[in-house]
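Exercise 7.
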Amino acid sequence: MTSNAAQAPLSLSRQSPRWGERITMGFLAGAASLSVLVTVGIVLALLLPALEFFKEVSVWEFLTGTRWTPRFTGQESYGVLPLVTGTAFTTVIALLIAVPFGLGAAVFLSEYASPKMRKILKPVLEVLAGIPSVVYGFFALSFVAPYVLNDLLHIDVGTFSVLAAGIVLGIMIIPTIASLSEDAMSAVPAALRQGSLALGANRMRTTLRVVFPAAVSGIAAAVVLGLSRAIGETMIVALAAGTQARMVSSPTEFGQTMTGFIAQTATGESTPGTLTFNTLYAVGLLLFLITLVINIISIRLVHRFREAY
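Solution. The predicted structure, written as tokens, is:
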């Protein structure tokens, strides 16, 4: 009797974690399924109105046209290239700013900063990621363009320019690239650093020849994530780049991006179901496809260069 009584609680204690595991697995499966359903819902929400748009406007005209005037009565034109060039200029400028500064900050935090300094500098750096993008937009519009570019650097830009928008956009994504790259570099085993230093390499050579190549998959993922965020950013480019869609050929010119057009047009003035309203979904679908292609490329790069230790 005593042995049976002692075994009963033991068997119950062994069975209870199984129910907890089942509940946890069910919750995790539900979360994964929810993310898939949300993605499918976004695709359908974009695809159905976009298909209505492409029934009246050919895909070729949409992708190759150089005039974008969907709201000009009697002069409608649906070539999306002006929006694409504006987006490309702001994104490239943002990466030219964010990649060197972000990777430089990551190298310093990972390889040179003391633990105490890292605890101070990294949260301060990540504060930039918490600033609302509309604040960055006003910063570009009221300070970077008139004072930094015009007065300090003597670059002739107007009130709106893709250069000012791209610079501030790059400042905004520096924390993303720096934080993720620093995490990737910190994950490199200390034995690799010690082996390099034991062979006579200095700290900079060790960083560039050993640590950086070992963390290249994580660094590539950080850069691509910053790229995706730059392409999808709205308020900075809507406020600072301009509101007129035109073929941009110079960084000092103003132009409109895809996200800027969506923000400007989705104000309730267009009647749902009309061709003008459906342009929002056509541009949104193109933006979604561009981001999807970038993510697919990034996944392939990460898997190709990933190092396991």
